[in-house]
Design a protein that fits this description.
Length: 404
């Protein structure tokens, strides 16, 4: 319910809803493009990057996986370059350590070749390497062949978000945490946003609400024609004495029809090594534990026609993911395809993340970033990985898409 005793309404040129990396990069891009504009960024949590951004794998992606010409392909590649430059300028710790994508059986070799051709089409400098060459790079990996991707890196995206927020504030933007949007209504020359911390007016809004982007769009009177379905990615971490097994990033060949990359090894910027994630349906949009359930989120998912069409299409893959979620032994077996030496006692559970995946009514997983226009609004309705890598490029693209 909207509080009856709202304070006086403040007015801005732009209001950005959502304090993850896309929201903050958008607020920053708006400030750069329109230096005289008043900008408000609001986030319902008490800190920035509390959900997708702060719980991802910390990878600076190259753009190898994405369809040539797509927003993901173009913005990831450009975002990689911009992010590295940004970190150098602002002295944020990162490392371009490179990645191996490995084929572990004969059936994966043609898929690996297709992926290599896609990488070339996306303008990446990548190379095929033999099993013997892989041993020189990652001595503990077992495979038939691999692609070496030198532009992949690692970073702490919370630190990046903190710097984005600092820059927005330094240029006159207003930042508000613990501010949840309750209602959005049109007014004569803009919109009014009712929140838990009062009412704000803006000439334009940008919805970067991530896991709740579809609901915020509907609050603003827009049907995005997709629904967010949350998928939880669960990770293990190598115990410190086994970190030597992984020197870079080690990925399997992904299923070309599924938007997840399979369990992999990621060396983190703090020196730890994470293994995962699997991908299972979350029963809560911000459900980081298996026991997390939200009745509204659950009902929305299970009454959405697209979910059941998706479930039927990927029943086999879904069952495998669920088994791996509840069976550490199954999770370990998947990892052993990449590094046979890994044993169950080498792994301990660590944090999970939740991916906001947009799903169409016919059961299609939205593969690309999705920007939806509204009345005096832009709604970012699908921005999962590699959105963190691409954040600076996405922010610029939103400004161009919306108001140039």
């Amino acid at each position: 319910m909207i509080p009856a005793d709202f304070p006086s309404t403040d007015r801005y040129d732009f209001a950005v809803i959502g304090g993850g990396i896309v929201g903050l990069s958008t607020a920053m891009a708006l400030g750069l493009r329109y230096p005289d504009a008043s900008i408000l960024a609001i986030e319902k949590e008490s800190s920035w990057a509390a959900h997708q951004t702060g719980n991802n794998s910390g990878v600076i992606h190259s753009g190898i996986y994405y369809k040539p010409g797509s927003l993901k392909a173009n913005l990831c590649r450009e975002g990689n370059r911009l992010l590295v430059e940004f970190c150098q300028k602002h002295e944020i710790n990162y490392e371009i350590c490179g990645k191996l994508i490995v084929a572990t059986n004969l059936e994966e070799l043609p898929l690996l070749d297709n992926l290599y051709q896609r990488g070339l089409a996306n303008g990446l400098k990548i190379e095929k390497v033999t099993a013997e060459e892989v041993k020189e790079i990652e001595p503990h990996v077992s495979c038939l062949a691999a692609i070496r991707v030198p532009t992949t890196g690692i970073i702490n995206y919370r630190q990046v978000c903190d710097k984005y927020a600092e820059l927005v504030a330094s240029r006159g933007g207003e930042l508000r945490l613990s501010t949840k949007v309750l209602k959005i209504a049109p007014i004569l020359d803009g919109v009014e946003i009712a929140t838990t911390q009062g009412s704000f007016q803006a000439k334009f809004i940008v919805n970067c609400a991530g896991l709740f982007s579809d609901r915020v769009a509907k609050l603003a009177g827009v049907d995005p024609e997709v629904q967010i379905v949350p998928f939880r990615g669960e990770y293990y971490e190598l115990v410190p004495e086994k970190r030597y097994l992984v020197k870079h990033l080690i990925y399997p060949v992904p299923n070309p029809n599924f938007p997840f990359l399979g369990v992999h090894f990621t060396r983190m910027i703090d020196g730890s090594v994470h293994a995962g994630p699997n991908a299972v349906l979350s029963l809560k949009r911000e459900g980081y534990q298996k026991t997390d359930i939200n009745l509204r989120d659950l009902v929305e998912t299970f009454t959405y026609p697209g979910f059941w069409k998706l479930a039927a299409k990927y029943a086999g893959v879904g069952i495998e993911e669920m088994v791996r979620s509840f069976s550490k032994a199954a999770f370990v077996r998947s990892l052993q395809k990449l590094i046979p030496e890994v044993q169950a006692e080498d792994l301990v559970p660590t944090h999970a993340g939740v991916r906001a995946q947009a799903l169409t009514k016919d059961g299609g997983l939205v593969d690309d970033f999705l920007l939806v226009r509204g009345e005096r609004a832009i709604h970012v309705c699908n921005a999962p990985s590699p959105a963190a890598t691409a954040s600076l490029a996405i922010g610029e693209a939103i400004v161009v898409f919306g108001w140039s």
